[in-house]
Backbone:
């Protein structure tokens, strides 16, 4: 019953900021990598940013310097602070987590959130 629940999306003007959050819940042993991906209409889903359990980060060149990914391991939550937003940032943003659920196998599984719409427009 593992779920990823996202919040924080919405409509913002160019140059504005949004902070997305994604909380993992359920029978989880440990969460390894977490990340944010986005998909605009007519385009492939693309990487935005990832963060390991030890907080090593990786960013797409298109968002580097504007976005910051972080995580709270105690709360199983990952965040994406988005600053200096541009119209081309408009997309559905998806949270991803690679985690080990409680169970016999103890193998890593890949989970996705439902997606949250971010629209940057004047």
Residues:
């Amino acid at each position: 019953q593992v779920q990823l629940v996202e919040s924080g999306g919405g409509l913002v003007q160019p140059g504005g900021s949004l902070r997305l959050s994604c909380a993992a819940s359920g029978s989880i042993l440990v969460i390894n990598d977490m990340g944010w991906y986005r998909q605009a209409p007519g385009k492939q889903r693309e990487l935005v940013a990832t963060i390991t359990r030890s907080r090593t980060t990786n960013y797409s060149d298109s968002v580097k310097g504007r976005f910051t990914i972080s995580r709270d391991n105690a709360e199983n939550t990952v965040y994406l602070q988005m600053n200096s937003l541009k119209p081309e940032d408009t997309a559905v943003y998806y949270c991803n987590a690679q985690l080990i659920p409680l169970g016999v196998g103890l193998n890593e599984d890949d989970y996705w959130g439902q997606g949250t719409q971010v629209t940057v427009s004047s």
Observations:
- The chain has a mean pLDDT of 95.
- The first strand starts at residue 3 and ends at 7.
- Residues 36 and 95 are 5 Å apart (CA to CA).
- DSSP finds no helices and eleven strands in the chain.
